[in-house]
Automatic annotation (TrEMBL):
<dbReference type="InterPro" id="IPR001478">
    <property type="entry name" value="PDZ"/>
</dbReference>
<dbReference type="GO" id="GO:0006508">
    <property type="term" value="P:proteolysis"/>
</dbReference>
<keyword id="KW-0645">Protease</keyword>
<dbReference type="GO" id="GO:0004252">
    <property type="term" value="F:serine-type endopeptidase activity"/>
</dbReference>
<dbReference type="Pfam" id="PF13180">
    <property type="entry name" value="PDZ_2"/>
</dbReference>
<dbReference type="Pfam" id="PF13365">
    <property type="entry name" value="Trypsin_2"/>
</dbReference>
<feature type="domain" description="PDZ">
    <location>
        <begin position="154"/>
        <end position="244"/>
    </location>
</feature>
<dbReference type="InterPro" id="IPR036034">
    <property type="entry name" value="PDZ_sf"/>
</dbReference>
<keyword id="KW-0378">Hydrolase</keyword>
<protein>
    <recommendedName>
        <fullName>PDZ domain-containing protein</fullName>
    </recommendedName>
</protein>
<dbReference type="InterPro" id="IPR009003">
    <property type="entry name" value="Peptidase_S1_PA"/>
</dbReference>
<comment type="similarity">
    <text>Belongs to the peptidase S1C family.</text>
</comment>
<dbReference type="InterPro" id="IPR001940">
    <property type="entry name" value="Peptidase_S1C"/>
</dbReference>
Length: 264
């Protein structure tokens, strides 16, 4: 695919999309510039950020060119589910720097002018909160996408909800409830997709995931993080509670890109 790239000085170039990833909201575009050399922004290290560090968002907010807003780093690892876009496969930096429509794709920089993130997400119901893809994550992804290759994303094929002892007790005390839930922390399976790794491994609705690969699971975010970190095609041992009995399920992670493309 080809796109038109417009620079801040008004020059335009034809760009070629070398690769893109919908699950990370990233694309690699190559241009062949002419005329005066183009400056490049130095990359910082998002892994070295701390809550309270300065954050500066740059972009075309609501159509206004070259808008700069100042804030701080509010959180370092917000899951896609927490941000409200559970279909994405990335954890986000949270900032209170004003990020508006048009800022998406612009850099989030530190006080030294180093890029620490790519502005990407805005919660419509939460004023003053913006999110950015950490530059460490984006840099790794761009090295793959710029070669025309696809990024693999491991998945199981289940919908989950965090379960707490208090929430389980409320359910169990409800005379209209027809299911008993273990009164402990874990990731509760709400649905199992057909013809998915989870379905083939024997997962069932209302299974409570308590451990993955030897790591205790306290929430749906815990489970999702471990799956996201796993490679495609690896076997994960998952401990679940089902009707007050413990089972160990062996599940081989699938490639989410294959499922979306219709190959699995």
């Amino acid at each position: 695919a080809k796109v038109t790239v417009t620079l801040i000085d008004g020059r335009t170039f034809e760009g070629v999309v070398k690769g893109s990833d919908d699950f990370m909201d990233l694309a690699a575009i190559r241009i062949t510039p002419s005329g005066k050399p183009l400056p490049t922004a130095p990359l910082g290290r998002s892994g070295e950020l701390q809550v309270g560090d300065w954050a500066i968002a740059i972009g075309n907010a609501v159509g206004l060119d070259s808008t700069v807003t100042l804030g701080i780093i509010s959180s370092l690892s917000r899951s896609a589910a927490e941000v409200g876009i559970p279909n994405k496969k990335v954890n986000f930096i949270q900032t209170d720097a004003a990020i508006n429509p048009g800022n998406s794709g612009g850099p989030l920089v530190n006080e030294f002018g180093e890029v620490i993130g790519i502005n990407t997400a805005i919660r419509a119901n939460a004023a003053g909160i913006g999110f950015a893809i950490p530059i460490d994550t984006a840099e790794k992804a761009m090295k793959v996408l710029s070669t025309g290759k696809k990024i693999s994303h491991a998945y199981l094929g289940i919908s989950m909800l965090s379960l707490t002892p208090a929430a389980a007790r409320l359910n169990n005390d409800d005379p209209n409830s027809n299911v008993y839930l273990p009164e402990q922390y874990g990731a509760l399976v709400l649905a199992v997709g057909p013809d998915t790794p989870a379905a083939r491994a024997g997962f069932r609705k209302f299974d409570l995931i308590t451990e993955i690969g030897g790591t205790a699971i306290k929430s749906a975010a815990d489970a999702q993080e471990l799956v996201d970190k796993a490679k495609v095609g690896v076997n994960l041992q998952v401990k679940v509670l089902r009707q007050q009995k413990q089972f160990t399920l062996d599940v081989v992670t699938g490639d989410l890109s294959d499922r979306v493309d219709g190959r699995k």
